[in-house]
Amino acid sequence: MKKVSYNITDSNTWIKIIHKHIASTLTKNLLILEEESGTGTIEVITIQEGLHITFIDVMLQSGLKLTRSPDTSNNHFILNFYFSKTEVPQKIAQQQKTSFEHYGVLLSSGMTASESIIPPNLPIKIFNITFSKDWLQKNVLDTVNPNGTLNSLFSNEKAIYLFENLDYTFHNTYQSIIDSEKSKGKIWLVADILKMLTHFFNKVESRPTFDHTTNINAVDIKNLLIAKKSIEENWDKTPSNESLAELANMSLSKFKKRFKQVFHESPYQYYLALKMNKAMELLLKKEHSVSDVGYLLGYSNLSQFTKAFKKFHNALPKEVNS
Q1: 3-state helix, strand and coil shares in percent for the chain, rounded to the nearest 5
Q2: Rounded CA gap, 304 and 20, in Å?
Q3: Burial classification of residue 87, based on how many CB atoms lie within 10 Å of its CB (0-12 exposed, 13-18 middle, 19 or more buried)
Q4: How many CB atoms lie within 10 A of CB 40?
Q5: Structural domains present in the chain
Q6: Is pTM beyond 0.85 here?
Q7: What angle do CA 189, 154, 258 make, to 5 degrees?
Q8: Residue 134 has what pLDDT?
Q9: Higher-confidence position of 215 and 247
Q10: Are 312 and 273 in contact (CB under 8 A)?
Q11: Residues 6+ apart with CB under 8 A from 98
């Protein structure tokens, strides 16, 4: 397995580091894997000075271990977008069990550390946005409340990890980004990226003001993501804080504090949001009736499902499904 070490930096620098370690050709900011490394491409696109996006679409011949070392300051930030599939085990009539996707985005600052392994012989698709502190200051922090959450968060010279659920604005904008990158043209791509970032920063700014960075590290984040994945994979069971804390190798009090610190909600609130967002996704596909969607998500009583959905989305399920 090949190993690559790097810091969060300008994406044009990062792609050169990858090129140096794996057999590939690099033309401008498009890296094409050579046969001995696998197939696929990595492309970096400059949106503005200090703001870049990266599309990774590869299948490697052998595994690749990526180790991100912490920098001495938060001069750069990265938003990693990802999803995991969660299967719904029930069947409706003779239909096969349904699968749906759960999306998330994790913000990391230059002072954070991480380690990930890209497995061999599997298609890997990754999308991320990177921006510099200078870009952030000029385009975001100078325009918002100086005493608000954003300025409080980014003024810290500490490791910053921050998670947000990818709601439908994120999801639909991402689909538009894909379309823009392929066929619409750069002006639409720039507009979509700025819309994506505006939505993200608005969500962060609306959070209660508290210290997002106190005593949090890469190990804590890794363990919290394990707990989060457990909630997603066991979506039909109300999560137990005690069992999740044990899974995250934390005390109960530390787990509850760190979970809310990173994910902006308690484990139960995260679990409920997961179910309600999946309900919205299934209803929008219009492949199942309202009652079938409620049943798939574990509600034996339609009125209970309707009440929960209305409280979360401020709309009735039938309004979405019609």
Answers
A1: 45, 25, 30
A2: 57
A3: exposed
A4: 17
A5: 2-214 (no CATH), 270-321 (1.10.10.60)
A6: no
A7: 105
A8: 96
A9: 247
A10: yes
A11: 87, 88, 282, 288, 296
